[in-house]
UniProtKB/TrEMBL annotation, chain A:
InterPro entries: Bact_Polyamine_Transport, MetI-like, MetI-like_sf. Coiled coil: none annotated. It comes from Gemmobacter lanyuensis. One of its GO terms (biological process) is transmembrane transport. Belongs to the binding-protein-dependent transport system permease family. CysTW subfamily. CDD domains: TM_PBP2. Keywords: Cell membrane, Membrane, Transmembrane, Transmembrane helix, Transport. This is Spermidine/putrescine ABC transporter. Gene3D superfamilies: MetI-like. It comes from the Bacteria.
From TrEMBL, chain C:
This is Polyamine-transporting ATPase. It holds the Pfam family TOBE_2. It comes from Gemmobacter lanyuensis. InterPro entries: AAA+_ATPase (IPR003593), ABC_SmlMolc_Importer (IPR050093), ABC_transporter-like_ATP-bd (IPR003439), ABC_transporter-like_CS (IPR017871), Mo/tungstate-bd_C_term_dom (IPR008995), P-loop_NTPase (IPR027417), Transp-assoc_OB_typ2 (IPR013611). One of its GO terms (biological process) is putrescine transport. It comes from the Bacteria.
Length: 269, 295, 366
């Protein structure tokens, strides 16, 4: 392990570059000025109050929560099926089927949402929160599959056989052995899908009809310069929220690895 | 380990169970992804007139999209922006991935990765918007420099330009590039490096002849993982470009919704998928060749 | 190493075949395993020994034939209803449960009271030498301890047959030898049938009452360890179990005893039981184990026969010295092992030596 101060300095500078724009959020969220510009004008919590008083925001947030909760549960469920199938069985067309399931990861979201929009309009499905959920499940599932596959992979197949050998049925084996051991993976999949869905914009924008969700609301606020400080306040709250969620997700991911006795390789993806 | 009567005697229960298990997810993906994509391809081969879509199949939309000046310009711009962003992101990310993999103690690696990934999971819209705030005419940089007396008038080169779009996107996708490179660096057996130096190479040459080639699969994965979402980005051209410098995604939206010409919109979408596929295939082939060259 | 054959049959394989697609994994297995027997399935990897074990447990379906446990055909009986329990190669200790939860896992459906179950768990742990380990977390155990937990967990259900899938392969040499002895004792103590899968011939010889040697989905020889070692029925079995030297040979006359001629050894008479395999008429060879050959030092005389040879290679092992010697008139050298005793010199390469041997230790392979 040789020291390399210049590399280290570079890596730290890189981290600062990553975080610098985000650091502006609290700066201007508490800045007592309608204009986002230096020099700072003094401390205020007005923008949080303004944000808090906005009924539209709460509606949008409520919609987003509904969507994120539904999408994360649905995509994690679909992810469990796919991850279990991919780690436990070999079957014809496996690569192709899993490739299709993972495809949204490498497809521009605009194309996914336009393709869905075209079909939904053609068969006359009205745009609503439900159609957003359909789209979000599609783009969240690959992430769920990726996370859950690694959870199922670290599961020794003989554990299942042992439970079965000791008198359990396939169903009770799943409940007593498999589920507890992949539970950390399930929780981290739920949290990550929740975060992705909450943050997603393009599908929500095009498939939502006249229903507004949080990201679409934020996008709308950008058009009004007077609203910008309140958006900064909102952004600050959101950043704090997602850091909390991610910390919890990371905690469960590590606990899952520790439980199944594996080694930590780090990272979500 | 099947219960019931001697399942081994009927076909292949393993395959049946596997297909059954994957079917909910596969059916969902087929109905909501494969079918719509096929629909887009079909649309792209029809003509959208005021009366509705024609029934005959034609390549007219593709000819229009591939020869039209505006379309060409927008596609070239998208390619340029995506390539620039990819190059910058990957080049900047490599040393960081290298640092974390080779110079950070194993128990601290997770923390570093965690710190690198956090910004990626915070609201994309707000991150992009922050760059608008930073680079705008009355933005953070201009107002900062003005108040410090370094400039007398706001800089205009930094707002609403391809350059500011590249900066924004490079920042947005930075963590994407680090992870795959890091993973491929982690996989390198450290004794190769010792062998390299043992055989008389300097550290720099060892890096050049051993580490870099072995990490190439990660670099190529990083290239794809940054390039694909970047070329299809919608928000950045809209916010940072102020709607004046659209990219492919904005063009698809414009045709499909604002001008209600689904056929041409679909043709652009298919073209975009083709571009993405070609670039992916080229890089995957490069990767294969690279791996074969090493053997 | 004696085993009475009047015990009832516990396991019976009747012409068992198993296909994986086109791959013929088990090719007509016929064998019976007696109640209370310590039985080993021995063979190289891929020979089908684990597959055969898993057909007993119920983890593999068979393509044709029948597997009987305690005289009942097991066709269609799932693994969770068979009177067998298994110790897995990876031990398969449930990582999220404590030691006692692991051991008591199979008692969940047992109608006994919680207190009785706890007592059973404590007894099982004591039996495997893990008294007081009940509250430990499973992932904090060493390899040897996991092995014991796996044994306790299987034995607590009082199975008719205990199946052991390469249970010692993950342990280091010292631990492995210790566990071999413990397993033998444990088997005598509980008195049930143990079926062990192993690729380690020494392990099989040490532990088993009888051994089935398997190659390519078939049982090549099924016998007690001594017969297997002294009278292997084919060159392949002889090669797999220990070391055996082979020299070309031919039969001169046949009867209740046979007159044969072997390269280097010359003519000798052996019993008909020393002639192995069906008559094929060509490519016959004679085999002998390294320890049945001795170098005769000055003043020593052969107990049976002797031949002149040249030392071609010497390998010193501390307690033993291995020599490669070429008998006069032989084309290839033979391995020979000598115990090193005080005052006995280690010979140099090229030395001429007298080699003592005995026709009774020879096996002829047709």
């Amino acid at each position: 392990m040789n020291k390399s101060p210049s590399l280290r300095a570079y890596a730290i500078a890189y981290l600062i570059f990553l975080y610098a724009p985000i650091a502006l959020l609290p700066l201007f969220a508490f800045n007592d000025s309608k204009v986002i510009a230096f020099p700072l004008q003094g401390f205020t919590t007005n923008w949080f109050a303004e944000m808090w008083a906005d009924q539209q925001l709460f509606n949008a947030f409520g919609n987003s929560l509904t969507i994120a909760v539904s999408a994360s549960i649905l995509s994690t469920t679909l992810g469990i099926f796919a991850a279990r199938a991919s780690t436990r069985y070999t079957f014809p067309g496996k690569a192709g089927i899993l490739g299709l399931i993972m495809l949204p990861m490498v497809l521009p979201e605009m194309i996914v949402s336009m393709a869905l929009l075209v079909v939904l309009m053609a068969i006359g499905v009205p745009l609503s929160l439900f159609t957003i959920i359909l789209g979000h499940v599609l783009i969240c599932t690959p992430f769920a599959v990726a996370i859950l596959t690694s959870a199922f992979q670290s599961l020794d197949r003989s554990l299942e056989e042992a439970a079965y050998d000791l008198g359990e049925t396939p169903a009770s084996t799943f409940r007593l052995i498999i589920l507890p051991l992949v539970m950390p993976g399930i929780i981290s999949s739920l949290l990550i899908c929740f975060t992705i869905s909450l943050d997603e914009f393009i599908i929500s924008y095009f498939l939502g009809g006249n229903q507004t969700v949080l990201s679409v609301y934020i996008f709308g606020q950008f058009r009004f310069p007077a609203k910008v400080p309140a958006v900064m306040a909102l952004g600050f709250v959101l950043v704090c929220l997602s850091i909390c969620l991610l910390t919890i997700a990371e905690y469960f991911r590590r606990r899952g690895i520790a439980r199944s006795g594996g080694k930590d390789t780090g990272g979500f993806l | 380990m099947k219960s019931g009567s001697s399942p081994g005697r009927f076909g292949n229960p393993e395959a049946t169970n596997g297909l059954l298990m994957v079917s909910p997810t596969a059916i969902y993906a087929t109905l909501l992804l494969a079918a719509p994509l096929v629909a887009v391809v079909v649309y792209s081969l029809m003509v959208d007139s005021k009366v509705g879509l024609s029934s005959g199949l034609t390549f007219a939309n593709y000819i229009e999209v591939w020869t039209g000046r505006i379309y060409q310009a927008i596609m070239m711009r998208s390619l340029t922006v995506a390539s620039l962003v990819t190059a910058i992101t990957v080049l900047l990310a490599y040393p960081v991935a290298y640092f974390v993999s080779f110079h950070v103690r194993p128990e601290r690696k997770s923390l570093w990765l965690f710190l690198i990934t956090i910004p990626f999971w915070t609201s994309y819209l707000i991150r992009v918007f922050l760059w608008k705030v930073i680079l705008g005419y009355n933005g953070v940089i201009n107002s900062g420099l003005l108040s410090l007396g370094i400039i007398d008038e706001p800089l205009t080169v930094i707002n609403y330009s391809v350059g500011s779009m590249v900066a924004t996107l490079a920042h947005a996708y930075a963590p994407f590039a680090i992870l795959p490179i890091f993973v491929s660096l982690e996989k390198i057996d450290r004794s190769f490096l010792e062998a390299g130096q043992d055989l008389g190479e300097s550290k720099l040459m060892t890096f050049w002849r051993v580490t870099l080639p072995l990490s190439m699969p990660g670099v190529i994965a990083a290239v794809l993982i940054v390039f694909i979402p970047t070329i299809g980005d919608y928000v950045t051209p809209d916010l940072i470009g102020g709607g004046k410098i659209p990219m492919i995604a904005n063009m698809i939206e414009g045709k499909m919704l604002k001008q209600n010409d689904k056929a041409v919109g679909a043709a652009i979408a298919v073209t975009a998928m083709l571009i993405v596929s070609v670039v992916s295939i080229v890089f995957l082939l490069l990767n294969k060749r690279f791996l074969r060259g090493q053997k | 190493m004696t085993f009475s054959s009047d015990k009832p049959n516990m396991i019976e394989f009747r012409d068992v075949h198993k296909y994986y697609g086109d791959y013929h994994a088990l090719r007509g297995i016929n064998a019976t395993i007696k109640a209370g027997e310590f039985f080993s399935l021995l063979g190289p990897s891929g020979c089908g020994k684990t597959t055969l074990l898993r057909t007993i447990a119920g983890f593999e379906d068979i393509s044709s034939g029948a597997v009987l446990i305690d005289s009942k055909v097991m066709d269609g009986v799932p693994a969770n209803q068979r009177p067998t329990n298994m110790v897995f190669q990876s031990y398969a200790i449930f990582p999220h449960l404590s030691v006692e939860q692991n051991v008591g896992f199979g008692l969940r459906r047992d109608p006994r009271s919680a207190a009785d179950k706890a007592k059973a768990v404590a007894e099982a742990l004591e039996m495997v030498g893990l008294k007081g380990y009940g509250k430990r977390a499973a992932h904090a155990l060493s390899g040897g301890q996991r092995q014991r937990v796996a044994l306790a967990r299987a034995l607590i259900l009082k199975p008719k047959v205990l199946l052991l899938d390469e249970p010692l392969s993950a342990l280091d040499k010292k631990m492995r030898e210790q566990m071999q002895m413990e397993l033998i004792k444990l088997q005598r103590q509980v008195g049930i049938t143990f079926i062990l899968v192993t690729h380690d011939q020494e392990e099989a010889l040490v532990m088993s009452d009888r051994i089935a040697v398997m190659f390519e989905g078939q049982i090549a020889q099924l016998a007690d360890p001594e017969t297997l070692y002294r009278r292997p029925n084919s060159r392949k079995v002889a090669d797999f179990i220990g070391t055996m030297n082979f020299l070309p040979a031919q039969i001169l006359s046949e009867g209740s005893s046979c007159e044969i001629e072997a390269q280097g050894f010359g003519r000798m008479t052996i019993g008909a039981d020393q002639v192995m395999g069906a008559t094929s008429g060509e490519g016959m060879s004679i085999g002998c184990r390294p320890e049945t050959l001795t170098i005769l030092f000055d003043g020593q005389t052969a107990t049976d026969r002797e031949s002149m040879a040249t030392v071609e290679e010497v390998v010193y092992y501390g307690d033993m010295t291995y020599y490669d010697v070429k008998l006069d008139g032989a084309q290839t050298a033979m391995r020979l092992s000598m115990r090193n005793v005080p005052g006995r010199p280690v010979l140099d390469i090229g030395t001429r030596a007298r080699v003592g041997w005995s026709p009774g230790a020879m096996v002829l392979f047709r």
